[in-house]
Amino acid sequence: MSQVDLSFPLLSLLSKERAVYGLRNGDHERYRRHCTNKIHRLRQTTGQTCGKGKQYKAPPKLDIESIKDVRHLQLLLFSAERSLAHSHEIKSQISKPTTHGSKKDQISWLRRSLKSSTELFELINTLSESNKISQRTKAEMTIYHLSVRSELSFEKSDFGACLTDLVVVRKLLSVLNENSKNSYDEALTNEFIDQKDPLIRFSAYKLGRSESHDIVGIVSDLEKDGDTLKDSLPGLEGLIEGLKKELEKDNDVSKDRIKLQDTSFAGEKVEFRNPELVKIMAGVQEVLGRFESKKNNKKNSTTSLKGWDKVLTVLGEAEGVARRLKDDHEASGSSTSLRSTQITSSLNLAHAYIVHLLLSHRIKRDLSLIDALSSNLQGSLPPNVGDIKIKGGRTKIEEVVKGLGGIIKLLDTVLQSLRGIAELSIVQEKEGVRVGVEGLEGYYHALKCFQLARLHCLHPTPSYSSAISLLERSAVSTHQARSLLSEPPIEIEEPIITIPAESINTLEQDIRTLDIASKKGLFSQSIEKPVFFDMAFNYIDIPFDEIEILSGKREKSTTIPSTSAQGVVADSLNVVRDKTMEGIKKLGRETRETTPAVEFRPSASTQKSKDAADDEEEEEGEAKGGEGKKGWLGGWFGRGK
Q: Where is this gene product found (predicted)?
């Protein structure tokens, strides 16, 4: 009968459970409820229930003979986790005014957690003697047990015992890290190391160590004093030797070790210290490797959209995971004052690197689409940039307009991605990367303005003035791109796309050619007169004298006309007015005018004589009207009399 193997990945199980069920966000209540439900299910499956009935019946105690399944060990593990989560929940609520817990309750729950972990630790040590438990599981259980014990010592202000236990934990984690068979295990150990580093630093500070900021130095100093570590964990050297032998044997058996490729950005190494992030980045590197191999095997430069979509999908998922991890870590800062700067910096750098990778591949995808559209428009566009007339009728014109519109939209997306890259902190901190991104932004902005100006010229209703304005902006951006890409002030790092100097020269020449053609089209353009433009000259005489004076062809007369001359002019105007009114009366239109009447403004002397004549006419009219009026309303009621 084969021996039952009761080994299980303890650290990996804890990392997944804590990450999924709220502990990563600092939601200790949610994690405590999850542990309670987990214990209930494990008791049902293992038969370790409290019995049925009104009276409480203690579950049977676990011993070596009764342990037949891994779930028996996990039952004790999650019992310790539930008590630990309850302690953390009380600690987070102590500072609140409406709290129901105290420091005493917190330490009480920590003691209960230590009791469960000690029981599990002793069971695993006993099982390892009969080779039912691997050395890796034993080491991971030792790490967990010492972590709980060090936390209890920390809360009781016993910083010496806490520091010793934490150094032993870090030593075991370092052994697992150095002999990890894949990048996931390496990131898993890094995660637990980063969690314990703040406690080591604070405990060393409380003990009065001057080098409290140097964690590696503290660990090396305590390792020299072997007796202290042996007192903390008897049999430490034997555990480390057995663990190394087992890990070396496992690494020899597993030839296909899954390792992430070393990643660097502008000379700075990018570390992925989170297991979840390592897992998703392994998939990203695999997809990128297959895509690059297929791309190199193809003869044409463009690849299928399916390949690009798969790459961008995987990178989008990786960016979402990295952003969530970063946000969760920032949110958890409010629940604890001991935060690892290593975790913060690594998550920020990893997220920025993934965003840069995503936007870079999005730019390459858009440029491949632009190349495909440009090749399709080769037969419809005029071969010469200066030719602004399209041959082939309305169908060709519509095809060119739609094609150029699509290219302009893609260039706009490229510029948007470049602006997103320029806003990243890792780009702004690296001068060589920033210069390259700004140069690309200037080049593609010039290219977009050039294509938009060409569209204005080739459109059925061209706008040459808009094209000229766009070409001026394009020339400025081209000059900026040349100064940053062809003659950079510093060596460009992490180039996204390499723009040769010939491409910039060609773009400048095309801009000059199209500028000349658009100016010729602007000056040769005939402007149609507006509707009813000539109708005004039927009623208004053009003041040619004033126009000649304003144009400078004739000098303005400085002589002041005399009063007699003004009177002559006024008399002539009155004569013209009288003749006009007589002509209108002959036509029978006394009450309605179809044309606007001309307003005459005579001189002052003529106006006085006219007013006197008007007064006489009014008096005669009143005398005649008085005879005809026989009642109210001007004689209306007196007509019959």
A: Cytoplasm; Nucleus, Nucleolus
